[in-house]
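Key result, reporting period 2: structure in, sequence out.
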């Protein structure tokens, strides 16, 4: 992503997207009671476009606006379609994030683990590129893996020392790069399926292992996974099995809500407004916003 081009695209497309959303909902702008917008984390230019648009709309309409943490919005996104009640363990796994949270009560998010290098989705994409797959590689990797054998390529699972819920993907990526450099080109379709299945299992094994450890340490009545990787078939299967073994619920957003979307921002903003939270007009973008940081109030 080129940040400057992304910002310009936001300027061009945002008004159209807002109008399309209103048309689809059958609403006029005067029916809007509040505006929610991402404060961070993200590309600062794109964030600023959205924030200033939200401020302008709120000011013109005389309604409140509320800034939302993008990652925390992912963590509540499954609640758009099904009940998701704290306490629960949540994972956001995507191309930019792989983080584990404990959510003990509404609006409280404690990060308890994260990747120390590559995100899970980043590992899928980078290894997929080496395999000759198109970006993003996750969907093709998932499709190929369904017909592959996951024990045909020996791949490492990083297990960090100490009492940590952090994880690492860099060793897996390096190992995949080394063996893929030796593969004949073009890689035959049956071999691609086996590689995809082996890579997928290596990534999912690490994610589910850490989720299991989190459930052992923190009280939870549910497990949720969001972000682009939550579309992955094996991850959904293994997380469902993990939750069933602990007799708790498992919640996933539908695929269209796993990736970045405005609905989850509105959902998180609605929760914030219900708690009496609004955001001052002096607030601005926070590119590296951490879930431990309180949002401007």
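The corresponding designed sequence is given below.
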């Amino acid at each position: 992503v080129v940040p400057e081009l992304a910002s310009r695209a936001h300027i061009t497309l945002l008004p159209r997207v807002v109008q399309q959303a209103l048309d689809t909902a059958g609403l006029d702008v005067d029916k809007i009671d509040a505006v929610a917008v991402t404060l961070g984390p993200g590309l600062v230019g794109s964030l600023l476009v959205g924030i200033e648009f939200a401020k302008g709309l709120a000011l013109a309409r005389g309604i409140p606006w509320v800034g939302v943490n993008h990652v925390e919005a992912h963590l509540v996104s499954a609640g758009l379609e099904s009940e998701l009640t704290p306490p629960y363990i949540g994972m956001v796994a995507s191309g930019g994030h792989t983080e584990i949270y404990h959510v003990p009560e509404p609006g409280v998010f404690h990060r308890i683990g994260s990747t120390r290098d590559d995100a899970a989705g980043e590992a899928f994409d980078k290894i997929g590129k080496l395999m000759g797959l198109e970006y993003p590689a996750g969907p093709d990797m998932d499709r190929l893996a369904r017909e592959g054998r996951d024990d045909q390529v020996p791949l490492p699972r990083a297990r960090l020392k100490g009492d940590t819920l952090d994880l690492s993907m860099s060793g897996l990526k390096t190992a995949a790069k080394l063996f893929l450099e030796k593969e004949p080109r073009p890689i035959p379709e049956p071999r691609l399926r086996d590689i995809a299945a082996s890579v997928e299992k290596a990534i999912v094994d690490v994610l589910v292992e850490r989720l299991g450890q989190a459930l052992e340490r923190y009280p939870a009545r549910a497990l949720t996974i969001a972000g682009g990787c939550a579309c992955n078939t094996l991850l959904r299967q293994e997380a469902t099995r993990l939750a069933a073994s602990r007799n708790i619920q498992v919640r996933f957003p539908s695929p269209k809500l796993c990736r970045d979307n405005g609905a989850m921002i509105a959902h998180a903003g609605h929760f914030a407004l219900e708690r009496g939270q609004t955001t001052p007009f002096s607030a601005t973008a926070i590119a590296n916003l951490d879930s431990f940081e309180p949002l401007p109030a």
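The chain is about 45% helix and 15% strand. The chain has two domains: 3-73+259-274, 82-252. This case is discussed further under Risks and Mitigation.
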